[in-house]
Amino acid sequence: xxxxxxxxxxxxxxxxxxxxxxxxxxxxxxxxxxxxxxxxxxxxxxxxxxxxxxxxxxxxxxxxxxxxxxxxxxxxxxxxxxxxxxxxxxxxxxxxxxxxxxxxxxxxxxxxxxxxxxxxxxxxxxxxxxxxxxxxxxxxxxxxxxxxxxxxxxxxxxxxxxxxxxxxxxxxxxxxxxxxxxxxxxxxxxxxxxxxxxxxxxxxxxxxxxxxxxxxxxxxxxxxxxxxxxxxxxxx
Length: 236
Known about the structure:
Elements: E1 6-10, H1 14-25, E2 30-34, H2 37-46, E3 51-54, H3 63-71, E4 81-85, H4 91-99, E5 104-107, H5 112-127, H6 141-232
Parallel strand pairs: 1-2, 1-3, 3-4, 4-5
Helix pairs in contact: 2-3
């Protein structure tokens, strides 16, 4: 029977945590969940996990900082740490993650079969004491902080560019929508004017029709009077 392991999932998105939890529980493992690094660190210090799978971009404490704290904690530093991220996806992001002591750097979304295979592999190596030491661990705190700041600034710059592009696109869409609205208003005005014109013509037609019917009735009445007079005089 395959041994059950305690896996700590750290992600601020509930759907992501649910996906990983169901995936791990389907293979018999026990799962703890945390929505940010701070909560995860507190949970790990209370109950040491066999594996940590963490996102990077999170409130309160991000994944990078969590990894630093874990690897600086005598009780937790031996715990395999896997990054699973959709935001930090550059090669330098991966290099920095591995330099902090992470065992693996995965980019979302990963196929469930591939993901569970990787997790199983690390848990098995961990259980057999064969898990290789993390590569290029940064020892100098100043260097670590510098690299950490660079990754955050880089991501912030990317987010700013994305936001600016989003604002430009939104302005473009707003302008197109305004133009469409104005065109629609012009069309409505034109159709309204046409309808008013048609209604006026119909009203004039109805008036002429009523007057015509009235004249026909007058003529009929006049003819009837003449016929009666002709009968009285014995002409008809």
